[in-house]
Amino acid sequence: MTDASKSRKRDAADWFHELRDRIVAAFEAVEDADAPGPFADLPAGRFEVTPTRRTAEDGSDAGGGLMSVMRGGRVFEKVGVNWSEVHGQLGDRAQQAMAARGVPGMADDPRFWASGISLVAHMRNPHVPAVHMNTRMFWTPHAWWFGGGSDLNPCLEYPEDTAHFHARMQEACDGHEAEGEAGRYARLKAWADEYFYIPHRKRARGVGGIFYDDLNTGDWDADFAFTKSVGEQFLPAFLPLVEKRRAQPWTDADKDAQLVHRGLYAEYNLVYDRGTKFGLESGHDADAVLMSLPPEAKWH
For the residues 260-268, what does the mean pLDDT come to? Predict the structure, then answer.
């Protein structure tokens, strides 16, 4: 491994960790500020932080991370903001998945390193949309790349909220096109629409956002800068929607719609989500991998 590779991995992992810290602090501040809200009689929510460890098949250390979960808050019913930095050797199924994606040499040298932040928020008020955000870097001796994105998952859609979220996602993309590339936002929006589609329900799980994977333009600094831009735009994209909707009255029918929509979200994450599958197949902490699941859901 070159010194440049070591430095880049350290820079990426440290930035993902710092972003995690900022988001956790911002979400706890939302809880503190909810004095006039419908659940003001509850204590302000706080994250429970649990270190996670990954152990290789030979028992050696294979990295880990921080699982940060808030449950039963005034505004957030359940939210997880996880950070990880893991390494080791990919198992047979993960090797096959990487090879199918065009990563060369995995059968000869299946070493890997990965770091990232993963966030899913399920809200008390059904008028406040659920949201997902993830940014990550993956390295093998044969290739490196970035991936991530963010998507909004309202059970009760407000077009103006959708427009605000997408405007911030476009801002994350603007100015980061590689030479000869045009329309990054439009391309990544279309990718999200395709990726977050649930075939057996014949519908999307939400109102989309942006999604990208296997980003390696050959310019590591530029690709990292774009990934940071995606992370930086998350709070400005989401917090105004929380502020606007958190005290809005709702009916039993609204709550029922939220629980049914959460079932849809759970179906997608358990059946189709590539990150969930990789996390479980690579031996990462199962509770951390599955923190995206809602605290309560319903199926008709």
Answer: 92
The catalytic residue among 127, 132, 176, 284 is 132
Smallest CA-to-CA distance from 79 within 295, 276, 298 is with: 295
Look at residues 176, 213, 198, 172 and name the one whose alpha carbon lies nearest to residue 266: 198
Polymer length of the chain: 300
Which run of H or of E encompasses 227? helix 220-232
The secondary structure of 127-195, three-state, reads CCCEEEEEEEEEEECCEEEEEEEEEEECCCCCHHHHHHHHHHHHHHHCCCCCCCCCCHHHHHHHHHHHH
Residue 41 burial class via C-beta count within 10 angstroms: exposed 0-12, middle 13-18, buried 19 and up: exposed
Q: What percent of the chain has pLDDT over 90?
A: 68
Residue 277, token pair as written in the block = 């599958």
| Structure confidence at residue 75 (pLDDT) | 96
H or E stretch including 210? strand 208-215
Is residue 122 part of the annotated active site? The answer reads no
Indicate if the pLDDT at residue 112 is higher than 80: yes
d(CA 88, CA 54): 9
| 88 three-class SS | strand
Please say whether the beta carbons of 188 and 208 come within 8 A: no
The packing angle between helices 3-32 and 234-245, to 10°, is: 10
Query: Among 109, 107, 143, 226, which Cα is nearest to 177's?
Result: 226
pLDDT tens readout for residues 71-81: 999 999 999 99
Per the DSSP assignment, residues forming a β-bridge with 197 are: 204
Mean model confidence pLDDT for the chain: 90
pTM value? 0.91
CA distance 108 to 233: 39
What's the pLDDT at 159? 98
